[in-house]
Amino acid sequence: MYLWDIKGDKEVYEGRVSHCHKECEIYYMIDGEAEFLIEGHKYLIVSDSLMLIPPNCFHQWEYAMGKVHHRVCIHFLPEMLNRTERDFFLDLFVEPLHFLDGLLYNLNFYVQSIIDCKQMEASLRKIAVKCRMLALLSQIHFLRSTKTVKPVVLDERICAVINYIGEHLREDLSLDILSRRFGITKNHLNVLFHKTVGTPLMKYVTVKRLGHARQEIISGARLGEAAYNIGFNDYSAFYRAYKTFYGCPPSELLINSSQLIDYPKVSQ
Prior knowledge:
- This protein has 2 domains: about 10-150 and about 260-265, Regulatory protein AraC (Jelly Rolls, Sandwich); about 155-255, Homeodomain-like (Arc Repressor Mutant, subunit A, Orthogonal Bundle).
- Helix content is about 45%, strand content about 20%.
- It contains 11 helices and 10 strands.
- A hairpin with a 2-residue loop joins β3 (about 35-40) and β4 (about 40-45).
- It is globular and about 50 Å long.
């Protein structure tokens, strides 16, 4: 587990450009306020609120200039969970989830219990972090159906495009096809999508496909099968895209998950 203090970092006040990563992210705002922009939606994060961000989900944030804030970010790879746990918990990370009143629902307690693991010796820490992560995910799963907060939609057209992409990832999704489908010129669609989501449309499609292929490989699919199933007709193209985005070849996923990650990555 890694912990560090970033409150002096310029990006705390200036915001961070849209990005995504292969880890699941749990963000808990202890004290402060920020705006999260996540794939066409805006979430107001206030003190004592928690945000779940799925892997391969483009997001950015902005903090009020000059105001001090305190938050905890937990990043973990799905491989940290065994197959049964993944089947149960990863449906939490299909779309962003936002919760208010963390104290009322003990979310702060579960987050703090993970942070406290840094005081333990390494052999105990590995076990404790896994158990406490499962406890946090269990509480979030319990609250999900009734306690989530709806976001603000930034652009209905772009949200419709995002939903369509999510439902048709295995099909041809060229800029021409999407432009005709939604009655928007290619140039305007790309500009509008980039402005709303923070990344070019076709890069977004590629990243979403890579994320789905990655999950299929983790679940036992062969490399070529996973690439073909999610819309890559050429394995070499899939290999290059995967290595460029993730920084390693897809074959690394065939390594036992315990060799890939021991603990979630936590920052305060």
